[in-house]
Q: What sequence folds into this?
C-alpha cells in the first residue's frame, strides 16, 4: 500500500535591490545597455581594484529585515565565497556567511482556510550578483557580460516551514508585497529581480525527521515554481517507493520540458572556503541608525487596510485590491487628499483602471498616470462639467498619457452642455424628425423616450447633460 | 612528519584551486604541504580559548559610499586585456549549466 | 661629481633651483641602467623614450610653476605589482605577462602629482611571494654589492635599483618584510608604514590584510619625504586610514634624548648571524650614546609569528589569485578541453611553483573541516601577537632588532627548503600581522662586504619615532657607501 508523504519546503529568495549603483562600485544598475558598458575595474575583478560598500544596500537590507520581524545584526561583516565560474569575475562572490545582517524573522501567510501560518526566516544576507552568460550554440562558446556583476542582492533564507506549492506562493507573494512597499525592489520574477531556489524534501506523513533535500534553481514564474515543486515531490516519492535514495544535489528546472536535471560536476567541490573579506570593514548599525531606518518604514498593507476601513468607508473588496500594491494605494491616497471623494476615486481604480490594465496586458507597477490628474477628473464629473461617458474617454487619455483633464476638456470642447436654449433647439429638431417615436411615447410607450434621448446625445456629440435632456424632452412631449 | 597528505587531498585541493599538477609536482606538493602543516601545528601549543579572531587590525567600521553613479561606459577598458572577445563581451569555452 | 650622487630630495632641490633639469636626471639614470642592467636585471619594463618624454613634460611643468613639491623631476622606479595606466604590469608572473592596466595605483598617482617621473617597473618575486627575487618569471635580480648574491625580496628589483643608482628611489610593497629585507640586503633605507597609511588601491593583492606600499631610498630624509607624498586617505580603499599626522619630515630631528628603546632578547638569540648581531647592537649603542634609554625585554610569541603569517597570507592569497583565470586578462592556455580544463591549464602554466605552493596551502587551510583549526586559530594568535606588541609599546617608544638573520644569501641557495626560507622572515613578519610600521636602515657590512640592516619598529601610527631615531643614527653613522658610490670612487 502506498504511504502518505509530506512535502517539506524551504526557500532561498534572491532579490535585486533598487539602488542606483552597484553594491561595491559607482557603476549604474540600469537594465539594458550594450554588454560590459556598466562596468569598471571593481565589478570586473581587475587586479588592484578594491570594493567600497554602497550604504543604501545596508539600509534596504535592514528595512526588509525589520519588515519581516528579523533581529538586525548590528555588527555584520562580509565574507568571500570562493568558486570558479566565468560570470564571477573575481572567482569569489562577496557575501555574508558568519554574520548576516538579519536573522530569526518570520512572515505570516494566510492559508486557504483562513488560518494564519508563520513562515520563519533563518537569515537575510547581502551579496553581489554575478554577470550574464550567453551561450552560442554554433560556436560552442559562451559570452560574458559583466553589466549585472555587482548589482546588490539580498538573499532571504527561510526555514523549511512550507508544505505545499500554495504555501510557497503565498509566502513569495507576501515577501514581494513587503519589499515592493519598501521600494527596495520591484520583485519581478520574469525579469529576474526576484528569484527563488526551492529546497525540497519528502517524508512519511507524521515523521518528525527531515528527508534528504534537493535544491531546484531557475524558476522564473509562480507557475514554474508550482510545476517544479509538484515534479520534484513526485520524483522524490518515486525514488523512495522504489527503494532508491534521494541524493542531496542542486537541480535545474527546465520549464519548457517540465523536468529538472542535476547540475553535478566533478569539478564542483561545493566547498566555498568562506572567510572574512579583508578588503571590507565591518558594518556597525548603531541604535540611532536603526531608529532612522525604522522611522522611514512605510505603513504596510495590514495597517493600511484597517485605516482605509475606518477613514474612507469603501468596500473591503476594494480596500484589499487597492492595498495590494503600494503604487495603487499611493495613487488612491493622494487623489483622495486632493478631491476628498474616496468612493469615486476607488471606482476609477477598481473599474476603469483594472479594465485598461487588463486590456493592455499591464501590471499595476506599469501605471504612469498621476493621482493629481485622476483627482481632477473626479472633480470634473462631480461638478457636472463632463458627463460620465465623456469622463471615460478622458480617463483613457489620463491613463495612457497622463494628460491634464481640465485642459483636455477645454481644448476639445468636451464640456457638458447645460444651456437649455441650445438644447431646446436640438431637441425640437429631433422631435420633429422622429414622429413615430413621439407617437409611441404619447401612446404610453415610456421606453420610446430613451431613443429620443439617445438621438439628442448623438446630435450633441455626447456632450449634453443626459438628465437635463430627459427632463426637457418630457416637458416638450407633454405639450 | 605528523601530517600526511594523501593523494586524494592533493587532488581535492587541486580542484578547489584549479591547479593541475604533474605526478612529480604532486609528490612535492604533498611533502611541502605536510611540512608546512607540521609547522603550522605549532600554533596548537597556544591556548586561544576566548580570544576573538582578529581579521582587521584597527576597529574601523562603516566605510561606505553614497548611492550615486560615478562611472560611465567602461567597456573599452574592461575588454582591453581580454584573451578572447568579440569586441563587446568576453569569450569563454561554453559553460554548461 | 655625478647627478647620481644626489639623494632624491637633493636632486629635487637642484632641479628647482635650475642647476639641473628633470631630463638631465633621467638621462643620468638611463646611462646607469644601460651600463648595469644586463648584469643586475632590476627592471621588468623600462621604456627609455617614454621616460625621457615624461621627464621633459615634468621639466616644462616645473618651469611654468604648475609642478612643484619636494620630489618634482625625480626619476622613480615602481615595483611591478602596482598598476600603472597604459604600462605593462606583470607581478613578475607569466600569467600577467601581457597585462596593461587602464588605471594607476593611488600611490603612483600621488607620486606623479608630486612631479616624480616613472622610469619603469621593477622585478620582484612572483606575486610578491618570496624573499630573494628568484621566483620571478623574468629572471633573477642580482645584488649590486655582489652579483653572486640575491638582492632579497620580494621588492628585490626596487632595492637593487636604488643601490645601483638605476633610480633615485623606488616604491616597494611589504607583506611580510618585502621592503625591509631587500633594503637590508642592498644597503638602502626601506620603510613599511602602518597598515592603512598608503592606499592599496591599484596594488595587486597578495595578502590584503598585510600588504602595505612603502619607499626604498637612499637616506632617511628621502624616506620621510616620500612617505609624506604617498600617504593618503583614499576613499577607494576601505582599509585606508584617515590620519592627520602624516607630516613625516617634521620628525627629521637629530635628538633621541629620553627616547625609550626596547631590545627584544628573542630577536638576538639562536639563528642570528654574529656579525649581524654585533652591527645592530653597535648601532643601538650609538643611539644610547645620543641619550636614548635602552632596555632589553622579552617579546612574547616571536616563534608563532611565522606559522600565523603563512596561514593567513596563504589563505588570502589563494582567494586573491583566483581572478587570474584566463577569462578577463593575462595569459590563457593555448590548448584546453572545456572551461575547467582551460582554468587548470592556464593557472598551472601561468603560475610558478612558489605561487602554486602558497595557493595550495591557502586553499587547504580554508577548506571545509580545516577552517577553524587553521585559519581561525591563526587569526586568534594574530590577536595575541598584537597584544604582545601593545604591551611592549606601553613601555618603549621604539623596538630595535635585526631585519634578517643573515646578510644576502647566495643565488640558488634558498628555494630548495621553503621552511628555511620562511624562517628568514622571523624578524619582519610580525609587524605585518600587528599592522606596525618598521624601517630598515644600513648599519654596517659583514666580512664578505655585504650590507647589514637594522630594523626600527614603532607602534601603530608612530612613524615619527622611527624616523627621528633613524635620522639621529644616520647623522651619527655618517655616509653609507652604496655599490654605486664605490664604483664612482
A:
Amino acid at each position: 500500500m502506498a504511504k502518505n508523504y509530506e512535502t517539506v519546503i524551504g526557500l532561498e529568495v534572491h532579490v535585486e535591490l533598487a539602488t542606483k549603483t552597484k553594491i561595491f562600485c559607482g557603476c549604474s544598475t540600469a537594465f539594458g545597455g550594450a554588454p560590459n558598458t556598466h562596468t569598471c575595474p571593481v565589478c570586473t575583478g581587475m587586479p588592484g581594484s578594491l570594493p567600497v560598500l554602497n550604504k543604501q544596500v545596508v539600509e534596504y537590507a535592514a528595512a526588509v529585515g525589520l519588515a519581516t520581524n528579523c533581529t538586525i545584526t548590528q555588527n555584520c561583516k562580509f565574507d568571500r565565497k570562493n568558486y570558479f565560474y566565468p560570470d564571477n569575475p573575481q572567482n569569489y562572490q562577496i557575501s555574508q556567511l558568519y554574520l548576516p545582517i538579519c536573522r530569526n524573522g518570520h512572515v505570516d501567510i494566510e492559508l486557504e482556510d483562513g488560518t494564519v501560518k508563520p513562515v520563519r526566516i533563518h537569515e537575510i544576507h547581502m551579496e553581489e550578483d554575478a554577470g550574464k552568460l550567453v551561450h552560442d550554440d554554433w560556436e560552442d562558446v559562451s559570452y560574458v557580460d559583466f553589466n549585472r556583476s555587482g548589482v546588490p542582492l539580498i538573499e532571504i533564507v527561510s526555514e523549511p516551514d512550507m508544505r505545499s506549492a500554495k504555501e510557497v506562493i503565498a509566502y513569495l507573494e507576501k515577501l514581494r508585497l513587503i519589499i515592493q512597499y519598501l521600494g527596495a525592489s520591484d520583485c519581478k520574477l520574469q525579469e529576474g529581480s526576484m528569484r527563488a531556489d526551492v529546497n525540497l524534501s519528502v517524508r512519511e506523513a507524521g515523521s518528525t525527521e527531515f528527508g534528504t533535500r534537493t535544491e531546484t534553481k531557475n524558476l522564473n514564474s509562480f507557475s514554474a515554481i508550482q510545476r517544479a515543486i509538484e515534479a520534484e515531490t513526485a520524483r522524490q516519492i518515486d525514488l523512495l517507493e522504489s527503494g532508491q535514495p534521494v541524493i542531496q544535489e542542486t537541480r535545474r528546472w527546465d520549464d519548457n520540458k517540465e523536468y529538472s536535471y542535476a547540475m553535478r560536476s566533478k569539478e564542483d567541490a561545493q566547498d566555498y572556503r568562506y572567510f572574512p573579506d579583508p578588503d571590507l570593514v565591518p558594518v556597525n548599525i548603531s541604535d540611532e541608525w536603526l531608529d532612522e531606518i525604522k522611522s522611514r518604514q512605510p505603513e504596510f498593507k495590514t495597517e493600511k487596510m484597517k485605516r482605509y476601513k475606518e477613514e474612507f468607508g469603501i468596500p473591503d473588496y476594494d480596500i484589499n485590491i487597492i492595498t495590494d500594491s503600494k503604487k495603487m494605494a499611493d495613487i488612491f491616497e493622494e487623489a483622495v487628499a486632493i478631491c476628498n471623494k474616496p468612493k469615486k476615486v476607488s471606482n476609477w481604480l477598481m473599474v476603469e483602471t483594472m479594465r485598461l490594465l487588463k486590456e493592455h496586458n499591464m501590471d499595476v507597477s506599469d501605471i504612469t498616470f498621476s493621482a493629481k490628474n485622476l483627482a481632477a477628473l473626479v472633480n470634473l464629473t462631480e461638478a457636472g462639467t463632463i458627463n460620465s461617458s465623456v469622463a471615460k474617454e478622458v480617463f483613457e487619455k489620463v491613463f495612457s498619457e497622463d494628460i491634464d483633464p481640465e485642459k483636455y476638456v477645454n481644448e476639445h470642447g468636451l464640456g457638458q452642455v447645460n444651456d437649455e436654449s441650445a438644447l431646446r433647439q436640438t431637441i425640437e429638431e429631433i422631435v420633429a424628425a422622429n414622429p413615430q417615436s413621439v407617437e409611441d411615447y404619447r401612446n404610453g410607450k415610456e421606453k420610446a423616450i430613451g431613443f429620443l434621448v439617445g438621438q439628442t446625445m448623438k446630435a450633441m456629440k455626447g456632450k449634453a447633460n443626459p438628465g437635463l435632456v430627459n427632463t426637457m424632452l418630457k416637458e416638450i412631449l407633454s405639450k | 612528519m605528523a601530517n600526511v597528505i594523501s593523494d586524494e587531498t592533493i587532488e581535492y585541493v587541486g580542484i578547489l584551486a584549479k591547479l593541475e599538477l604533474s605526478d612529480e609536482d604532486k609528490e612535492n606538493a604533498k611533502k611541502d604541504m605536510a611540512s608546512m602543516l607540521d609547522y603550522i601545528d605549532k600554533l596548537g601549543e597556544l591556548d586561544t580559548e576566548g580570544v576573538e579572531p582578529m581579521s582587521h587590525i584597527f576597529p574601523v567600521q562603516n566605510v561606505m559610499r553614497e548611492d550615486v553613479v560615478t562611472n560611465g561606459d567602461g567597456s573599452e577598458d574592461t575588454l582591453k586585456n581580454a584573451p578572447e572577445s568579440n569586441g563587446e563581451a568576453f569569450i569563454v569555452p561554453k559553460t554548461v549549466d | 661629481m655625478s647627478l647620481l650622487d644626489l639623494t632624491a630630495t637633493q636632486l629635487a632641490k637642484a632641479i628647482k633651483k635650475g642647476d639641473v633639469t628633470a631630463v638631465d636626471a633621467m638621462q643620468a639614470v638611463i646611462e646607469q641602467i644601460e651600463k648595469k642592467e644586463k648584469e643586475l636585471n632590476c627592471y621588468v619594463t623600462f621604456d627609455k623614450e617614454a621616460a625621457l618624454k615624461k621627464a621633459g613634460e615634468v621639466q616644462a611643468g616645473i618651469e611654468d610653476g604648475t609642478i612643484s613639491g619636494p620630489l618634482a623631476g625625480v626619476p622613480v622606479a615602481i615595483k611591478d605589482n602596482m598598476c600603472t595606466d597604459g604600462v605593462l604590469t606583470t607581478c613578475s608572473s607569466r600569467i600577467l605577462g601581457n597585462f596593461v592596466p587602464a588605471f594607476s595605483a593611488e600611490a603612483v598617482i600621488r607620486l606623479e602629482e608630486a612631479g616624480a617621473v616613472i622610469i619603469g617597473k621593477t622585478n620582484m618575486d612572483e606575486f610578491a611571494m618570496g624573499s630573494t627575487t628568484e621566483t620571478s618569471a623574468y629572471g633573477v635580480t642580482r645584488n649590486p654589492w655582489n652579483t653572486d648574491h640575491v638582492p632579497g625580496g620580494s621588492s628585490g628589483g626596487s632595492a637593487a635599483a636604488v643601490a645601483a643608482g638605476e633610480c633615485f628611489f623606488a616604491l616597494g610593497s611589504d607583506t611580510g618584510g618585502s621592503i625591509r629585507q631587500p633594503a637590508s640586503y642592498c644597503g638602502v633605507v626601506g620603510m613599511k608604514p602602518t597598515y592603512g597609511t598608503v592606499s592599496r588601491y591599484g596594488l595587486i593583492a597578495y595578502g590584503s590584510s598585510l600588504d602595505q606600499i612603502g619607499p626604498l631610498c637612499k637616506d632617511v630624509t628621502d624616506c620621510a619625504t616620500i612617505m609624506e607624498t604617498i600617504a593618503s586617505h583614499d576613499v577607494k580603499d576601505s582599509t585606508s586610514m584617515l590620519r592627520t599626522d602624516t607630516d613625516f619630515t617634521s620628525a627629521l630631528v637629530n635628538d633621541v634624548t629620553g627616547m625609550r628603546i626596547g631590545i627584544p632578547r628573542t630577536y638576538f638569540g639562536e639563528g642570528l648571524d654574529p656579525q649581524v648581531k654585533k652591527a645592530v647592537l653597535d648601532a643601538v649603542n650609538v643611539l644610547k650614546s645620543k641619550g636614548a634609554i635602552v632596555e632589553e625585554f622579552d617579546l612574547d610569541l616571536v616563534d608563532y609569528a611565522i606559522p600565523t603569517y603563512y596561514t593567513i597570507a596563504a589563505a588570502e592569497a589563494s582567494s586573491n589569485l583566483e581572478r587570474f583565470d584566463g577569462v578577463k586578462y593575462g595569459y590563457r592556455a593555448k590548448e584546453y578541453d572545456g572551461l575547467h580544463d582551460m582554468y587548470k591549464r592556464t593557472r598551472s602554466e601561468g603560475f610558478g611553483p612558489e605561487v602554486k605552493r602558497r595557493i595550495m596551502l591557502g586553499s587547504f587551510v580554508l577548506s571545509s573541516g580545516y577552517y577553524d583549526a587553521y585559519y581561525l586559530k591563526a587569526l586568534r594568535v594574530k590577536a595575541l601577537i598584537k597584544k604582545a606588541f601593545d604591551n611592549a609599546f606601553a613601555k618603549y617608544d621604539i623596538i630595535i632588532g635585526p631585519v634578517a638573520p643573515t646578510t644576502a644569501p647566495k643565488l640558488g641557495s634558498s628555494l630548495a627548503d621553503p621552511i628555511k626560507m620562511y624562517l628568514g622572515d622571523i624578524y619582519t613578519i610580525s609587524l605585518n600581522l600587528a599592522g606596525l610600521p618598521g624601517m630598515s636602515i644600513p648599519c654596517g657590512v659583514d666580512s664578505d662586504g655585504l650590507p647589514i640592516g637594522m630594523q626600527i619598529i614603532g607602534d601603530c601610527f608612530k612613524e615619527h619615532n622611527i624616523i627621528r631615531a633613524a635620522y639621529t643614527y644616520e647623522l651619527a653613522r655618517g655616509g653609507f657607501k652604496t655599490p654605486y658610490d664605490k664604483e664612482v670612487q
User: Anything to note?
Assistant: The CA atoms of residues 29 and 45 of chain B lie 25 Å apart. Chain B touches chain C through 50 residues (CB under 8 Å).
